[in-house]
Specification:
alpha/beta; Rossmann fold; seven-stranded parallel β-sheet; 9 helices; binds NADP nicotinamide-adenine-dinucleotide phosphate
Length: 295
């Protein structure tokens, strides 16, 4: 893939006010891009706009999971001549699967998978009008290595990965690229107290959002089609594809820890964070423990 120069481009960024999104906004601005920052909370977006030079970041309060919100994004993206869409929003969902309600699961899948599908489709004409263009989905380690306590969330990220891979292949001869880039556990509010405690007990490595954002920006500029951030998470993801039984056995050993934290989380709130706990397969043998498999 050829390199993508971000200078002078306008990037539409969902989840811009989040931990990774805010750090990505700073990366894009430093690279000379303008950012159309999207989130639901206008006050958080305003703080993001104020943290950057005048005009570098413009805000749009919109809910990507609602048709009206997506229509607002499409109209604004046309006006702003957006050529790069970065999807960095998501809803977390950590907990025992049986304790999660149909409504919570439906909302999570709508936010993490259906809405990206609908938004990408609606934005394609505007993006192609500004070609060369790019659509980047921020995935998760759990999009290639499903984790106990995150079954529903893993399903949504597996789906997102499949969507981007399918589009990458469907538009292989078009001047628009599709990239799926997966961070591992990252220190943001995405992870509930229960997830943070579990990660600590599992010795799951967590990245700073700034580190993740720098890696994502570099991968976007390089045009990397797929990436799993972090080591050994990248190895575990590959192992999970080739020898999933190894990962099954390692995670079975960790299941009591996951269950305990998931049960606590389910008791505290029905659907909470997700992200990152990952597991890591330790360097000797195949242990998926302590450094998460990034998501
Ligand atoms: N943190 C981790 O450990 C981790 C690990 C792997 C992958 N990831 C992935 O990285 C991405 C960013 O995560 P993060 O850690 O930065 O999360 P975060 O800090 O919780 O931020 C989430 C962002 O998404 C926005 N958002 C949520 N639902 C939305 C909706 N329906 N419409 C519009 N905006 C919405 C939030 O803003 P409003 O609430 O104002 O709408 C916020 O800006 C996600 O895709 C996540 O799955 C995170």
């Amino acid at each position: 893939m050829s390199a993508l120069d971000l200078r002078g481009r306008t990037v539409a960024l969902t989840g811009a006010s989040g931990g990774i999104g805010a750090a990505l906004t700073a990366e894009f601005v430093a690279s000379g891009a303008r950012v159309l920052a999207i989130g639901r909370d206008a006050a958080r977006l305003r703080r993001l706009v104020d943290a950057h030079p005048l005009g570098a970041v413009v805000a749009l309060a919109a809910d990507v999971s609602e048709a009206d919100g997506r229509a607002d994004i499409v109209a604004r993206a046309r006006d702003e001549k957006v050529s790069v869409l970065v999807l960095a929003h998501a809803q977390a969902a950590f907990g025992l699967f049986e304790s999660q309600s149909d409504e919570a699961l439906e909302r999570m899948v709508r936010t993490n998978l259906t809405a990206p599908m609908q938004l990408i489709r609606a934005l394609l004409p505007a993006l192609r009008a500004q070609a060369p263009a790019a659509v980047v989905a921020v995935g998760s380690t759990f999009g290639a290595l499903a984790f106990p306590g995150f079954a529903g969330y893993s399903a949504s990220k597996y789906g997102l990965r499949g969507l981007i891979e399918g589009l990458h292949r469907e538009y292989a001869d078009a001047p628009i690229r599709f990239q799926y880039l997966a961070p591992r556990a990252t220190r943001t509010d995405f992870n509930s107290a229960a997830v943070v405690a579990m990660n600590r007990e599992l010795k799951t490595a967590e990245d700073a959002p700034e580190t993740v954002a720098a890696a994502l920006r570099a991968a976007i500029e390089r045009g990397t089609t797929r990436a799993q951030l972090g080591w050994p998470e990248a190895l575990f993801v590959r192992l999970n594809g080739l020898l999933p039984g190894l990962i099954d056995r390692d995670l079975k050993k960790r299941l009591p820890i996951v269950r305990r934290h998931a049960a606590a989380s389910s008791g505290a709130s029905s659907s909470t964070s997700s992200s990152s706990t990952a597991s890591s397969v330790s360097s000797s043998s195949v242990e998926v423990p302590h450094d998460p498999v990034r998501s």
